[in-house]
């Protein structure tokens, strides 16, 4: 079996050494080269033909974003960003995903990295292995489709059912997929709650970026916030989001318990919190690696919720929706660019029509 050929691009010699050590501990990976800046990397790509890059953001001579934009234009290939947990780092990382980076991993300080190498190693190797298997030509095509997608607001007469709610789970590729789904939904849409696998500081910046392009009001979820029509609530990084019904209204509730399926926030935690009101729920799984949300979606379906997964062709990674597919947890399988319309058509049905119509 051919090994995965990785080129590391980072201005820190210490980081490059640690990343090389961690990656080469896996027998399926070989580090073919290191570059301290994008100008060196540009030449190494030509001579070494790596399968995938790990790319730092802040580097001398050329920043990672400028390099990434040029790379995706001239020679598209899988890229995993190494990002800081700062507000600036969050914005730049989200921009990198818009440009075509497959995924990112938050890069701790050198001292923290040396102390937590084992945990960092597992995440790094996992992301590299998943990213290299992405069909780069299809990803590039999907990125262009997202960039040029129709953002006109869909017509919607309003939900006929009180407290109807849409719950969406996503991971790798989800930041871009959610833009497509949410940007066409009108301000009178049913409330949407989102569990996107994302670290702290990123969730607020992501919500703010979505709010700039959406007619619905997009915000980072707050503990105790009352859920209202026309609003989208993005789960905060590093804490689970649950939904509870009190006195006929729905509220966001935080849960600081352990990770579920290696994630916090977890899609399964969100979905399972909706089981008491399942008959009034639409649950959606978008692109992402792993299986988070699949079991929760199955349980929701069994309790009367409507369940939708993104199809394989339009998914960056069909891990989460694919896992739901294997469990037969879905009722609908839908192209990314048709999900918004699909959800709104169902949301407009009366309770009687729900039982006699198929979308």
From TrEMBL:
<dbReference type="InterPro" id="IPR001789">
    <property type="entry name" value="Sig_transdc_resp-reg_receiver"/>
</dbReference>
<keyword id="KW-0963">Cytoplasm</keyword>
<protein>
    <recommendedName>
        <fullName>Protein-glutamate methylesterase/protein-glutamine glutaminase</fullName>
        <ecNumber>3.1.1.61</ecNumber>
        <ecNumber>3.5.1.44</ecNumber>
    </recommendedName>
</protein>
<dbReference type="InterPro" id="IPR011006">
    <property type="entry name" value="CheY-like_superfamily"/>
</dbReference>
<dbReference type="InterPro" id="IPR035909">
    <property type="entry name" value="CheB_C"/>
</dbReference>
<keyword id="KW-0145">Chemotaxis</keyword>
<feature type="modified residue" description="4-aspartylphosphate">
    <location>
        <position position="56"/>
    </location>
</feature>
<dbReference type="GO" id="GO:0008984">
    <property type="term" value="F:protein-glutamate methylesterase activity"/>
</dbReference>
<feature type="domain" description="CheB-type methylesterase">
    <location>
        <begin position="155"/>
        <end position="350"/>
    </location>
</feature>
<keyword id="KW-0597">Phosphoprotein</keyword>
<dbReference type="InterPro" id="IPR008248">
    <property type="entry name" value="CheB-like"/>
</dbReference>
<comment type="similarity">
    <text>Belongs to the CheB family.</text>
</comment>
<dbReference type="InterPro" id="IPR000673">
    <property type="entry name" value="Sig_transdc_resp-reg_Me-estase"/>
</dbReference>
<feature type="active site">
    <location>
        <position position="197"/>
    </location>
</feature>
<feature type="active site">
    <location>
        <position position="292"/>
    </location>
</feature>
<dbReference type="Pfam" id="PF01339">
    <property type="entry name" value="CheB_methylest"/>
</dbReference>
<comment type="function">
    <text>Involved in chemotaxis. Part of a chemotaxis signal transduction system that modulates chemotaxis in response to various stimuli. Catalyzes the demethylation of specific methylglutamate residues introduced into the chemoreceptors (methyl-accepting chemotaxis proteins or MCP) by CheR. Also mediates the irreversible deamidation of specific glutamine residues to glutamic acid.</text>
</comment>
<feature type="active site">
    <location>
        <position position="171"/>
    </location>
</feature>
<feature type="domain" description="Response regulatory">
    <location>
        <begin position="5"/>
        <end position="122"/>
    </location>
</feature>
<dbReference type="Pfam" id="PF00072">
    <property type="entry name" value="Response_reg"/>
</dbReference>
<keyword id="KW-0378">Hydrolase</keyword>
């Amino acid at each position: 079996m051919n090994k995965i050929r990785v080129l590391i691009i980072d201005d820190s010699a210490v980081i490059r050494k640690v990343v090389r050590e961690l990656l080469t501990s896996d027998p399926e990976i070989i580090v073919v080269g290191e570059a301290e800046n994008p100008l060196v990397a540009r030449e190494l790509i030509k001579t070494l033909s790596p399968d995938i890059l790990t790319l730092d953001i802040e580097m001398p001579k050329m920043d990672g974003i400028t390099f990434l934009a040029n790379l995706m234009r001239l020679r598209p290939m899988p890229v995993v960003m190494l990002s800081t947990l700062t507000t600036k780092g969050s914005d730049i990382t989200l921009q990198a995903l818009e440009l075509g980076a497959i995924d990112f991993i938050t890069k701790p300080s050198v001292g923290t990295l040396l102390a937590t190498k084992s945990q960092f190693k597992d995440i790094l190797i996992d992301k590299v292995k998943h990213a290299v298997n992405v069909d780069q030509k299809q990803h590039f095509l999907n990125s262009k489709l997202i960039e040029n997608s129709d953002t006109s607001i869909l017509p919607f007469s309003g939900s006929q059912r009180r407290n109807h709610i849409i719950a969406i789970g996503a991971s790798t590729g989800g930041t871009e997929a959610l833009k497509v789904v949410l940007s066409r939904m009108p301000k009178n849409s049913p409330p949407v709650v989102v569990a996107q696998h994302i670290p702290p500081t990123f969730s607020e910046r992501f919500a703010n970026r979505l709010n700039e392009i959406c007619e619905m009001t997009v915000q980072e979820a707050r503990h105790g916030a009352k859920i209202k029509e026309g609003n989208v609530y993005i789960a905060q990084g590093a804490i689970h989001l649950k939904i509870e019904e009190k006195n006929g209204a729905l509220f966001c509730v935080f849960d600081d318990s352990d990770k579920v399926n290696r994630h916090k926030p977890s899609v399964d935690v969100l979905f399972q919190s909706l089981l008491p009101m399942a008959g009034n729920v639409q649950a959606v799984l978008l692109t992402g690696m792993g299986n988070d949300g699949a079991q929760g979606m199955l349980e929701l379906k069994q309790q009367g919720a409507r369940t939708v997964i993104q199809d394989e062709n339009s998914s960056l990674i069909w891990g989460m929706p694919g896992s739901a597919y294997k469990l037969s947890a879905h009722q609908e399988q839908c192209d990314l660019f048709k999900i918004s319309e699909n959800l709104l058509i169902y949301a407009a049905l009366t309770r009687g029509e729900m039982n006699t119509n198929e979308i």
